[in-house]
Recover the amino acids of this structure.
């Protein structure tokens, strides 16, 4: 019995995120972008039975599969290797996404120059001319005889370069500027980006060639293009940084070869980008000078960025009395959490703050949002209010509840070990932490009021 012949179906796909809907609407239901739905016609196909074919390679017991081809090879940039899980795996595809001007091309030029010392590297640029890339390479010292530049935007031309050079590493900057004649749609659109990524991924697997793709991000910081782009690649890295700060962070979002929550720290300088194996000095105003210069209104804590413990200094300033509408200014912290801590200090500890202006901030442009910094921030506010400096060798860890209790946080051992390594000898931690690094006096506290009573009076 045969059914009626199927006809082609008309649908709409979002050019920003790839979401499909049956009928046109003005705003994409997925990414909320306006006017991005494009019509597409899907030809009708009958379900066919798949015939058995000859396997390309026979199946083997997992214990007999060779591991040499899947081992990571170091890039020469230690902080990037940390995030990648040891280095680049042959045949892997890495997507590095970040805002314009954050330093993606500068970092990859450094990677390319170091990789060129061990083999041939092909750097394909679709956004700049080869001369512009050469100028940046001259400034950062990334010029090497085996580093080849190609200003191309066509996938066929890239394949031609691969056939000619047989490189050991391919860098494409950026994937949104590449196109192929085998797919419809505009350059940078969903169809083109998907087709180019699929082709480059197939080439990488076929030739055991590591490929690094540069990706754009949207206004909200997510990776531009279809969501399937992140599923096609092996590793997704997010390159973050504030234009007002020299600090840059490479954060793992997805990693098939290692941990997906690692963070690498870099500093952007005039001569290029430099990895920071010990970035805590950027976040401590007193680091590198002397720990004897204690200032009221400052406290030190240890935050976890992925798996990495980082020391951070939080500062507070309490100014004025009997102000009808006092200000509350926050920089680098969660404003809602700061407001909650101020209310806890008023109600549970008896610190009068309602008629004074309170300013809170972090040092070095660091963003601190985890609750483990609550105790340090509360102590900084009390220190500023009483004009009494905290001990300069003290770190404080703990989440503050609405009842004023100090709650436990994860990774206490790693946090205190990092603080001890940097010379801090005293710590306030939640009750029941049961961690005492060598050379550090650890005091467990149960509630905020008890800690504040222990502070020395003026």
């Amino acid at each position: 019995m045969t059914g009626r012949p199927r006809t082609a179906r008309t649908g709409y796909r979002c050019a920003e995120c790839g979401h499909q809907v049956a009928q046109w609407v003005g705003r994409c239901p997925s990414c909320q972008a306006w006017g991005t739905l494009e019509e597409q016609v899907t030809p009708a196909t009958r379900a066919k039975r798949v015939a058995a074919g000859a396997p390309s390679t026979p199946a083997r017991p997992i214990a007999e599969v060779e591991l040499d081809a899947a081992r990571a090879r170091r890039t020469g940039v230690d902080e990037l290797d940390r995030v990648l899980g040891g280095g680049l795996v042959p045949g892997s595809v890495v997507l590095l996404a970040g805002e314009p001007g954050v330093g993606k091309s500068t970092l990859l030029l450094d990677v390319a120059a170091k990789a060129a010392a061990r083999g041939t590297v092909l750097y394909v640029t679709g956004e700049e001319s080869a001369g512009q890339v050469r100028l940046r390479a001259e400034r950062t010292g990334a010029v090497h005889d085996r580093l080849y530049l190609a200003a191309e935007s066509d996938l066929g031309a890239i394949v031609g370069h691969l056939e000619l050079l047989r490189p050991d590493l391919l860098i494409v900057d950026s994937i949104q500027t590449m196109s192929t004649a085998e797919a419809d749609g505009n350059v940078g659109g969903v169809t083109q980006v998907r087709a180019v990524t699929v082709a480059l991924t197939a080439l990488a697997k076929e030739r055991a060639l590591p490929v690094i793709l540069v990706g754009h991000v949207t206004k909200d910081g997510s990776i531009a293009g279809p969501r399937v782009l992140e599923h096609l690649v092996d590793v997704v890295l997010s390159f973050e940084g504030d234009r007002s700060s020299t600090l840059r962070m490479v954060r793992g979002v997805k990693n098939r070869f290692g941990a997906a929550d690692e963070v690498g720290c870099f500093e952007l300088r005039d001569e290029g980008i430099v990895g920071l194996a010990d970035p805590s000095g950027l976040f401590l105003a007193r680091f590198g000078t002397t720990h004897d210069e204690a200032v009221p209104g400052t406290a030190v804590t240890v935050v976890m960025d992925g798996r990495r413990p980082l020391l951070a200094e939080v500062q507070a300033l309490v100014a004025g009395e009997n102000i009808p509408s006092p200000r509350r200014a926050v920089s680098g912290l969660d404003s809602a959490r700061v407001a909650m801590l101020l209310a806890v200090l008023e109600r549970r500890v008896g610190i009068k703050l309602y008629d004074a202006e309170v300013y809170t901030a972090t040092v070095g442009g660091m963003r601190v949002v985890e609750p483990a910094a609550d105790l340090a921030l509360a102590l900084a506010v009390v220190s500023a209010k009483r004009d009494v400096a905290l001990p300069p060798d003290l770190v404080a860890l703990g989440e503050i509840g609405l009842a004023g209790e100090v709650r436990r946080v994860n990774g206490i051992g790693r946090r205190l070990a990092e603080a001890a390594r940097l010379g801090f000898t005293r710590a306030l931690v939640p009750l029941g932490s049961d961690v005492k690094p060598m050379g550090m006096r650890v005091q467990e506290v149960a509630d905020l009021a008890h800690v504040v009573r222990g502070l020395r009076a003026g």
Observations:
- Residues 283-454 form a domain with the Ribosomal Protein S5; domain 2 fold (CATH 3.30.230.10).
- The chain has three domains: 9-42, 71-277, 283-454.
- Confidence is low (pLDDT under 50) at residues 1-5.
- The two ends are 94 Å apart (CA to CA).
